[in-house]
């Protein structure tokens, strides 16, 4: 067993606090990673506070992990000690169902094994995430990370990056498309970067007036304040796609009205309470709503390689581990620019 230091929540009302546990020994197919940085996703907060139900405690969150390989099992050929490696939102899946076979492990028919707040397939022990000093993961669920980019900026690509890259690729966003990105947080800022990089004309739809200048710096061509009624009216029937990253309850109809004929709202944000789907806004212009969950292993590697080739990283505020509870409070106030990333050196001291 490998003694590991971490931060965990003991229950849905408790702040995160120091916690020690053991990782499994490195198996023949495993990669042991010394965690350098871990991004802070709004999903961490939803699950730590049990906003989606079914949370497993104690919980060590964190699924945007980048670190250095320190040991590999005897069957591992793709990684060696000293390599940079990444772990995203899941660490296993059944491998045999049609979705796993197609590289869409996130949609595994038998349920993927989440990096935290999940149960290991064989032992049924809880999985613990990246707010910790190290992790042991099967090589097939470990990603290669280029040393061309700043590693703290790469960490959020493992969730915020792939969650926005995957659906934008799936619907074929590119030149000639008008794309609205709703919500400028961790996911939203990556959505803007990818949509602009794919050649689309991007409008940031934000509830925060203070984010206008940043939105443009991130690559948005336009900015619209969602509380500005005239502005919103002027964007009626305007977009081909809206990437909806909002984490709090909100009304879909306001934003569906901004879609042109056959336009699509891509839902990636997961508010704790469901939003009603308004029939009129859908039928009037043959609009649709689709959802998307992170991305499979092959596409996550493709996204990481795309980012290395195009010099794309997340804009981050690096924090020490003990700051995490304050970081959560700031996240709830939409005060993140644009991803908190934990420097795990602060936990190893
Ligand atoms: P985040 O950094 O907190 O950003 C969310 C943004 O939503 C905020 O910055 C804010 O942007 C906007 N917002 C928040 N409350 C709002 C409200 N009441 N009305 C309108 N806009 C509001 O969160 P994140 O990490 O990007 O995650 C966003 C959501 O995606 C979360 O629900 C998370 O669980 C989910 N998620 C889903 C997947 C997936 O696979 N589908 C993966 C990761 C995360 P403005 O200030 O610009 O308005
Ligand atoms: Zn996430
Ligand atoms: Zn499967």
UniProtKB/TrEMBL annotation:
Entries under PROSITE patterns matching the protein: ADH_ZINC (PS00059)
SMART domains in alphabetical order: PKS_ER
Any GO molecular function: zinc ion binding
Co-factor(s): Zn(2+)
Domain of life: Bacteria
Annotated signal sequence range: none
Family, similarity comment: Belongs to the zinc-containing alcohol dehydrogenase family.
The name this protein goes by in its record: Uncharacterized zinc-type alcohol dehydrogenase-like protein
Organism name: Chryseolinea serpens
């Amino acid at each position: 067993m490998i003694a590991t230091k971490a931060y965990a929540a003991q229950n849905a009302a408790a702040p995160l606090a120091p916690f020690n546990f053991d990782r499994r020994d490195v198996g023949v197919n495993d990669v042991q990673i010394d965690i350098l940085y871990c991004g802070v996703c709004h999903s961490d907060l939803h699950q730590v506070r049990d906003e989606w139900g079914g949370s497993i405690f104690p919980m060590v969150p964190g699924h945007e992990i980048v670190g250095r390989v320190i040991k590999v099992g005897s069957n591992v050929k793709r990684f060696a000690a000293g390599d940079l490696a990444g772990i995203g939102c899941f660490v296993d899946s059944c491998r045999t169902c049609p979705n796993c076979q197609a590289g869409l492990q996130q949609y595994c028919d038998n349920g993927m094994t989440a990096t935290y707040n999940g149960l290991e397939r064989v032992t049924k022990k809880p999985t613990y995430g990246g707010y910790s000093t190290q992790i042991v993961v099967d090589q097939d669920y470990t990603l290669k990370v280029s040393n061309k980019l700043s590693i703290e900026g790469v960490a959020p690509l493992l969730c915020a990056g792939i969650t926005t890259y995957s659906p934008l690729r799936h619907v074929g966003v590119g030149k000639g498309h008008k794309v609205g990105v709703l919500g400028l947080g961790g996911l939203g800022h990556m959505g803007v970067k990818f949509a602009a990089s794919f050649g689309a004309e991007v409008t940031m739809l934000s509830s925060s007036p203070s984010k206008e200048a940043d939105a443009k710096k991130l690559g948005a061509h336009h900015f619209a304040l969602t509380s500005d009624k005239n502005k919103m009216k002027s964007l009626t029937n305007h977009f081909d796609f809206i990437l909806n990253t909002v984490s709090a309850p909100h009304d879909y109809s306001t934003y569906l009205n901004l879609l042109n004929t056959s336009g699509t709202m891509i839902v990636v944000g997961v508010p704790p309470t469901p939003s009603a789907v308004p029939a009129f806004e859908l039928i009037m212009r043959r609009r649709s709503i689709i959802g998307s969950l992170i991305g499979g292993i092959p596409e996550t590697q493709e996204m990481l390689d795309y980012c290395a080739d195009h010099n794309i990283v997340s804009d981050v505020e690096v924090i020490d581990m003990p700051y995490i509870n304050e970081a959560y409070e700031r996240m709830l106030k939409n005060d993140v620019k644009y991803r908190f990333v934990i420097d795990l050196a602060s936990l190893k001291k």
